[in-house]
Write a structure and sequence with these properties.
Largest sheet: 5 strands, antiparallel
Order of helices and strands: HHHEEEEEH
Distance between the termini: 115 Å
Strand content: 15-25%
Number of helices: 4
Helix content: 40-55%
Shape: rod-shaped
Structural class: alpha+beta
Keywords: Coiled coil, Membrane, Transmembrane, Transmembrane helix
Number of domains: 2
Oligomer: single chain
Strand order of the largest sheet: 1-2-3-4-5
């Protein structure tokens, strides 16, 4: 049994020696074929002890950093475009805001009621209403006579006129009350 274990140890030592010899032979062949410099540089680079390799790594890192800076600038430019787009959308919403739907009731005189909404994007957001008609003023052409208005809280305020204010329009204070009854106020106005 002892003989068998000593042979196993001897075989292990022999196999290790052969593997080491083979590694040395491969290394020497690489040195001969490629040249001494590249092999040593490759080993030095693997161990991070070569200045050349460190310079190359530093240069690669600089290139990555520059690429990241360029990408950052591109993203900032894209962000500015997006901000401009958001501002433009806000301007479009503002431009589409406060539109008015008119209702006209014709009789002896046409009475027009305008319902004002906050935005096309929020068509149910009524912000006010106003009612008026046009009267021919003697010697002065046509004049708009306001009959009343409603605010956002649905509070109605009818216009009061005295006879001197209506002079030349052909409309009396009693006519104003009848015309105010023709205004088409939104439901819930008080």
């Amino acid at each position: 049994m002892l003989k068998f274990s000593s042979r196993a140890i001897s075989m292990t030592i022999l196999a290790s020696a052969i593997a080491l010899t083979f590694s040395i032979i491969v290394f020497l062949m690489a040195v001969v074929l490629v040249g001494e410099g590249p092999v040593i540089k490759g080993i030095a680079c693997e161990l991070n002890v070569s200045e050349d390799c460190l310079r190359k790594d530093l240069q690669k890192e600089r290139q990555k950093f520059q690429q990241m800076q360029r990408r950052n600038q591109e993203l900032q430019a894209e962000n500015k475009k997006m901000e401009a787009l958001v501002e433009r959308l806000a301007a479009l919403d503002h431009a589409s805001s406060s539109y008015v739907v008119f209702y006209t009731k014709s009789g002896r005189r046409s009475v027009t009621t305008g319902h004002t909404y906050a935005s096309l994007l929020k068509p149910d957001d009524l912000i006010g209403a106003h009612c008026y008609f046009f009267a021919n003023v003697t010697g002065a052409g046509t004049r708009q006579v306001n009959l009343g208005k409603m605010d956002r809280r649905m509070r109605l305020k009818l216009s009061n006129y005295n006879p001197s204010e209506l002079r030349g329009t052909g409309v009396s204070v009693a006519d104003i009350a009848a015309l105010q009854a023709q205004c088409q106020w939104p439901e819930g106005a008080s």
